[in-house]
Amino acid sequence: MKKILLLLSVVLLLPLQACAQEKWREGTHYKVILEQATEKKEVLEFFSFWCPHCFNSEPLVKAIKSKLADDVEFKKVHVNFMGFASKQTQDNATRAMMVAKALKKSDLLNQAIFQYIHVARSSITDMKDLKNIFIVNGVEPEKFDKMASSFGVDSMLQMNNKAIQKYRKYVSSVPNFIVNGKFQATFTRDMNQADMVDLIVFLSNKK
């Protein structure tokens, strides 16, 4: 009986997989940028806090994360090559993002940085501005200072910047999604948010 049920489930899934492959086409909806996929499934979102489109795409990011399978890791990679701020200021924002991650408050504090720039229309010029954003959102000043200079945050910052170096030739604008280290999503004008989510989920299951 178990074998029959397994066979039926496979038969039912095959048309769905064929439909997805027909819907999303290489060269139109995604590019193959590298031959070798990552060992573990992952979705990298290259973004900048200074990018208005990245700010407006946060609901899309939330929807993608909610639809990914448990074995797919979603990672935000903050770039430092945008023209809106100096490289040092952008690197400071990346460090602050890693502090938020270490504090397990990424959603709250990332949104706070976005809001500070795009809603309050305030400028970030140095680490002190980022620290103030965290303090307003409940982080103790001493805790921020300690985490910002910690080995763990330094390591996460290095990993973020290694991802930038690895994929820099493929990422000229943000937001940009690279899946399993092999596929780069291409969102076309006729796609709605549900389509975009479906594409990323589809790519996360490809090797």
| Mean pLDDT value | 93
* Class by alpha and beta content: alpha+beta
Nearest-angstrom radius of gyration? 19 Å
Question: How many DSSP H or I helices?
Answer: 9
Helix % is 40-55%
In total, how many beta strands? 5
What does this structure look like?
This protein has 207 residues and is of the alpha+beta class. Helix content is 55%, strand content 11%. The protein has 9 helices and 5 strands; from the N terminus they run αββααβαααααββα. Strands 1-5-4-2-3 form a 5-stranded mixed sheet, with helices on both faces. A hairpin with a 3-residue loop joins β4 (176-179) and β5. α3 (58-67) crosses α9 (193-204), α4 runs antiparallel to α5 and α4 (87-102) packs across α8.
Fold topology:
Blueprint: H1 2-23, E1 30-32, E2 42-47, H2 52-56, H3 58-67, E3 73-78, H4 87-102, H5 106-118, H6 127-136, H7 141-148, H8 151-167, E4 176-179, E5 183-185, H9 193-204
Parallel strand pairs: 2-3
Antiparallel strand pairs: 1-5, 2-4, 4-5
Give keywords.
11% strand; 207 residues; globular; 9 helices; alpha+beta; five-stranded mixed beta sheet; 5 strands
Précis, in short:
This protein has helices at 2-23, 52-56, 58-67, 87-102, 106-118, 127-136, 141-148, 151-167, 193-204; strands at residues 30-32, 42-47, 73-78, 176-179, 183-185. The protein has 207 residues and is an alpha+beta fold.
